[in-house]
Design a protein that fits this description.
The protein is mainly α and 639 residues long. The protein has 29 helices and no strands. 62% of the residues lie in helices and 0% in strands. The protein is elongated.
C-alpha cells in the first residue's frame, strides 16, 4: 500500500518517509556521530596549543600507517552510497516519482558524483565557479534530508547543510594532507569557503548560506579550519599541479609532521601559468584553486578584526605566485590590499601590522605577476598615498604623519623595483604637479593658489623627491636594483623638472606667512642635491627670505594666554603657513624661523664643501649674513 501511495505524496511527505526508513535501518547512526564529537572536541582543544609547532595542518601523533593507507573518506562516502542505494530502489518501486525528481530536483539524485569530475574546459572563470558550486552541493548531499521546494507555511528557511564537526574536519585533514587526495583537498576548500562566508550567514544573507557547503557552529572548529586550510592547501596545490614534494624532516623520517610541513619555496619567484596548465590535474583543480583564492579575497574584504586580517595576510604569502593564471582575480586582490594598506591614518597600533602585511602582499604581487601588472601596483600605490596625504596636517601630527611617512617609504620601495616602469609613471605625475603650478602662476586666484599651497601638494613633492633620491643612489651604486644602472639614470633625468617645480612652488607667494613652506622646499632641494651629486641653488631661497620686512621690525609683545599659537614654541616641520594676523610678528616665530634658516644655510655649505666652487658660494652667503646683521642691529629680538 505504501508503494501505491508514494506517487501521491507531496515532497515533504516523501522525504519524511525516507528519513523514518533511515532511522529504522541505520539504528540511529546520526545520534552516535554527534556523541562521538564530544570526546573528539576535548582532544582537539587540548592539542590546539601545538598548532604552530606542527606546521599548522595536523596534530594526531598516534595515527598508524594502516590509517594513512585506508580510505579516509569512508565515513562520508558510506552515507553517500546508502542514500544512492535507496534512491535506486525507489526508482524501481515508483518510476513515475523518480522521473519527476530527475526533471525538477535532479541534484537530489547526484550523491557523490560531483567530486570526481571537475571539467572546467575553456568556458571562462564564471563557468568554472558554477561547476565548483555544483561539486560542493554534491559533497554536502549526505547531510541533507530535504532540498526540494518548501510549499508548506514555514516562514523561516531551513538550513539542511551538514554540520562541520571535529571528527569530519579531521577526516578531511587525513584525506587531503596525509593521503594527498585531490578529493579530500576539494572538501577542505569547500569547507574553507563556508568559513569565509560566515559573515553573510550571520547577517541573514540567504544566498551566501545556500552557496556554502557546510555549517560551522563551533568557533574552535572555525579556528582550526582556517589554520589548516591557509597553512596546508598551498602545499597540496603545488604537489598536484607542479609536482613539488614537501621536504622531509630527515633521512628516512616518516613522522606525522614531516608530510605536512610547508616546503621551502621562494615566495617571490613567479610561477609560469603554462606550467600549471600543462598539469594533468589542472582541469580538475583549477576551479578549486580559484575558489580558494576568491574565498580568501572575500574574507579580506569582510573581516574587521586586525588579528584575523593580519593572520590571513601573512598566510596568503605562498598563494600569491599561484595567482598568475587568474589576472582578473589578481587585480581584485590588488584593490583589496591597497584599501587595507591605505586605511584611515589615525587607526590603532594593532592595525599597523595589517598595513605592513598588506604592503608586503602588494609588493609580492608586483614581483610575481606578469608584466604589466607592476604598473598597476605603481599607479594604485601613488593614488592611495595622494588621497591620504591631504589628512597629514599639523593637527594630526601624532597619529597621521607617522603613518603617512610609512606609506611614503612603501611607495619608494615599489618604485625601486622596476625603474623602466617607474619612469613612465613618475614623469606623468610630476608633470601633473607642474600643471597645477602653472595654473596657479597664470590665474593667481585663491582657488588655484590653494591647490598648490596645501599639505597634499607638499607631501606629493616630498614623495617624488624621495623616489628620485633612491633612484640616484641606485645609479651611483651601479644599479643593484630596479632593472639596471641605465634605467636608474633614466629616473635621474627627472631631477631637473622636479627641481623647477619645487623652486616655482617656493617663489609662488613670497610672503612672511608662507615662509615655513619655503623652508620645506629648501629641504627637498637639498635632498635632491645630495643624492644626485649636482648643484641646486637652494641658498638663494634662504637669502631672499632675509629681505622680509618683518625681520627688521621690533616684534610684538604678546600677553600670556592670549594666543596659544603665538605664545608657544613654533614647530616648523609640521607647519605650512603662519597665522594671518601675527605672521613673523612675535619673537617666538622670528627666533624659530631664523634658527631653521641658519641650520639650512649650514647644511647648504656642508653639501658643497668639497666643490671647487665652494669659495664663491660661501663668500656670497657670508656677505649677505653680515649685511643682515647690520640691518637688524637695532632690533633687540630680531637677530
Amino acid at each position: 500500500d505504501d508503494d501505491d501511495d508514494a506517487g501521491g505524496m507531496d515532497m515533504e511527505g516523501f522525504f519524511r518517509s525516507v528519513a523514518d526508513g533511515d532511522g529504522d535501518a541505520g539504528g540511529g547512526s546520526s545520534d552516535d556521530g554527534e556523541d562521538d564529537d564530544e570526546p573528539a572536541m576535548k582532544d582537539f582543544d587540548s592539542g590546539s596549543d601545538d598548532d604552530d609547532d606542527a606546521g599548522g595542518v595536523l596534530d594526531d601523533d598516534d595515527m598508524s600507517a594502516a590509517d594513512m593507507s585506508s580510505d579516509d573518506d569512508e565515513d562520508v562516502e558510506a552515507a553517500e552510497r546508502r542514500m544512492k542505494r535507496e534512491m535506486a530502489e525507489m526508482s524501481k518501486k515508483d518510476p513515475d516519482f523518480h522521473k519527476y525528481l530527475q526533471e525538477n530536483e535532479g541534484n537530489l539524485l547526484q550523491y557523490g558524483e560531483g567530486e570526481g569530475g571537475g571539467d572546467s574546459g575553456d568556458d571562462g572563470e564564471d563557468a568554472n565557479m558554477d561547476a565548483a558550486d555544483d561539486d560542493d552541493e554534491a559533497a554536502a548531499a549526505p547531510g541533507k534530508k530535504s532540498r526540494g521546494r518548501d510549499d508548506d507555511d514555514d516562514d523561516e528557511p531551513r538550513d539542511n547543510r551538514p554540520i562541520l564537526g571535529v571528527s569530519l574536519l579531521r577526516a578531511m585533514e587525513r584525506s587531503a594532507f596525509r593521503g594527498h587526495s585531490a578529493k579530500g583537498l576539494k572538501k577542505v576548500v569547500s569547507a574553507y569557503r563556508s568559513a569565509c562566508h560566515l559573515s553573510e550567514e550571520a547577517s541573514g544573507d540567504d544566498a551566501g548560506a545556500t552557496r556554502a557547503g557546510y555549517r560551522i557552529d563551533d568557533s574552535a572548529v572555525f579556528d582550526r579550519l582556517m589554520l589548516v586550510a591557509l597553512r596546508g592547501c598551498h602545499v597540496e596545490f603545488r604537489r598536484h599541479l607542479l609536482g613539488e614534494e614537501t621536504k622531509k624532516g630527515g633521512k628516512g623520517d616518516k613522522d606525522d609532521d614531516a608530510d605536512v610541513t610547508a616546503p621551502e619555496i621562494d615566495e617571490n619567484k613567479p610561477v609560469n601559468p603554462k606550467l600549471l596548465q600543462r598539469s594533468g590535474k589542472w582541469d580538475e583543480l583549477r576551479t578549486y584553486l580559484q575558489l580558494f583564492l576568491r574565498s580568501s579575497l572575500h574574507l579580506l574584504s569582510e573581516a574587521k578584526e586586525p588579528a584575523l586580517l593580519s593572520f590571513v595576510l601573512k598566510s596568503l604569502s605562498p598563494y600569491v605566485p599561484l595567482l598568475t593564471p587568474f589576472p582578473k582575480l589578481a587585480k581584485s586582490f590588488l584593490q583589496t590590499l591597497s584599501k587595507l594598506w591605505s586605511a584611515p591614518l589615525d587607526t590603532s597600533e594593532e592595525y599597523q601590522v595589517v598595513r605592513l602585511r598588506s604592503f608586503l602582499r602588494v609588493r609580492q604581487l608586483a614581483v610575481t605577476q606578469p608584466f604589466p601588472f607592476v604598473e598597476d601596483c605603481l599607479k594604485s600605490s601613488y593614488l592611495c598615498y595622494a588621497r591620504r596625504a591631504k589628512f597629514g596636517t599639523a593637527a594630526s601630527v601624532h597619529s597621521a604623519l607617522p603613518t603617512l611617512t610609512f606609506m611614503g617609504n612603501c611607495v619608494v620601495e615599489l618604485y625601486s623595483l622596476d625603474y623602466a616602469s617607474s619612469y613612465r609613471h613618475a614623469f606623468v605625475y610630476i608633470r601633473q604637479l607642474a600643471l597645477h603650478l602653472r595654473t596657479a602662476l597664470q590665474r593667481r586666484t585663491p582657488e588655484s593658489l590653494r591647490v598648490v599651497y596645501c599639505w597634499q601638494y607638499v607631501h606629493c613633492l616630498r614623495l617624488w623627491a624621495a623616489v628620485l633620491s633612491a633612484a640616484c643612489a641606485s645609479a651611483t651604486r651601479g644599479g643593484d636594483g630596479g632593472g639596471g644602472g641605465d634605467e636608474a639614470k633614466l629616473m635621474k633625468s627627472l631631477v631637473y623638472p622636479l627641481t623647477e617645480v619645487i623652486l616655482g612652488t617656493a617663489r609662488l607667494v613670497p610672503t612672511a606667512r608662507h615662509l615655513p613652506l619655503r623652508l620645506h622646499c629648501v629641504r627637498m632641494l637639498q635632498q635632491l642635491a645630495s643624492s644626485s651629486e649636482s648643484f641646486i641653488p637652494a641658498a638663494s631661497l634662504l637669502l631672499e627670505a632675509l629681505d622680509l620686512r618683518e625681520f627688521r621690525t621690533r616684534p610684538k609683545k604678546v600677553r600670556a594666554g592670549k594666543s596659544d599659537a603665538a605664545g608657544t614654541a613654533l614647530r616648523l616641520p609640521v607647519v605650512l603657513k603662519l597665522p594671518r594676523d601675527t605672521a613673523l610678528r612675535t619673537s617666538e616665530q622670528v627666533d624659530a624661523c631664523l634658527a631653521e634658516m641658519f641650520v639650512l644655510l649650514n647644511r647648504e655649505a656642508d653639501l658643497y664643501r668639497y666643490s671647487p666652487a665652494f669659495p664663491e658660494l660661501s663668500v656670497r652667503i657670508v656677505q649677505r649674513l653680515r649685511h643682515f646683521s647690520k640691518e637688524v642691529q637695532g632690533g633687540k629680538d630680531g637677530g
